[in-house]
Amino acid sequence: MTPRRIEFEILRYDPDKMQKPEFQTYLVPCEEDWVVLDALNYIKDELDRTLSYRWSCHMAVCGSCSMMINGEPTLSCKSFVRDLPNQVCIEPLNNFPIERDLVVVLDDFLGKLNSVKPYLIPREKKSLEEGVYLQSPAQLKKFKQFTLCINCTLCYAACPQYAHDENFVGPAALALAHRYNLDSRDVGRTARQDVVASNLGIWECSFVGACSEVCPHGVDPAGAIQQAKIASTGDYFMDLILPGRKS
Ligand code: SF4
Ligand code: FES
């Protein structure tokens, strides 16, 4: 089959050389089975070696090839060109500063992930000799969906609340906190609550649900945040009934 020629309009920005970002257009002969990442690799290999973008796995696993494709936060390795029109606009992810071209600065996101203590905090630490922490399939099922996050940050690019207030902890970090809070082997919920249940945490979310719509792995961060709101509301009433108890 003859390759289809698609015009890619790509936002370029080199902070060392340019005052502001500008679009540059490339005509790419695309094969039927290509994804947008293949077209970017063609541009890089054949047309313009200066184009910068992140990618690694080419199979929707590493989460590094996120960008805006025709205005939608998308993994470029999951977006088939056969589903796109003959003109495609590619921009860096919304709501993040541009490092260069399609590469964005992720420091804020990584700091937020870290702030929710996204790791198992067990009641008692075990040595390797003592073996693993056991869990039943039913206990795993309670949080398994929230383990599927690949940290692609598409949910942050889609979130109007994060666009409005960059201090919002945001969808993926809150979903990950919820994932550990639901884990039967974890006792770290109290340590996470200062961040999770703060005004910049779950209560900043207005439940638009755009995060869950763009999530490529069906994590449903919006659902996780609403579940966390219900649990925190329960804490509030329990504290009224039993003051001094530990939530
Ligand atoms: S929750 Fe979904 S959209 Fe957000 S970072 Fe994780 S995988 Fe990406
Ligand atoms: S290259 Fe890894 S998710 Fe796209």
Structural features, described:
With 247 residues, this protein is α+β, with helices and mostly antiparallel strands. It has two domains: 4-104, Roll (Ubiquitin-like (UB roll)), CATH 3.10.20.30; 107-241, Alpha-helical ferredoxin (Fumarate Reductase Iron-sulfur Protein, Chain B, domain 2, Orthogonal Bundle), CATH 1.10.1060.10. Helix content is 33%, strand content 15%. The protein is built from nine helices and seven strands. The strands form two sheets. The chain has a five-stranded mixed β-sheet with strand order 2-1-5-3-4. A two-stranded antiparallel ribbon has the order 6-7. Strand 3 and strand 4 form a beta hairpin. FE2/S2 (inorganic) cluster (FES) is lined by residues 55-58, 60-65, 75, 77.
Unreliable stretches (pLDDT < 50, length at least 5) are none
Mean pLDDT: 96
Order of helices and strands: EEHEEEEEHHHHHHHH
CATH architecture of the largest domain: Orthogonal Bundle
In the CATH hierarchy, what is the class of the largest domain?
Mainly Alpha
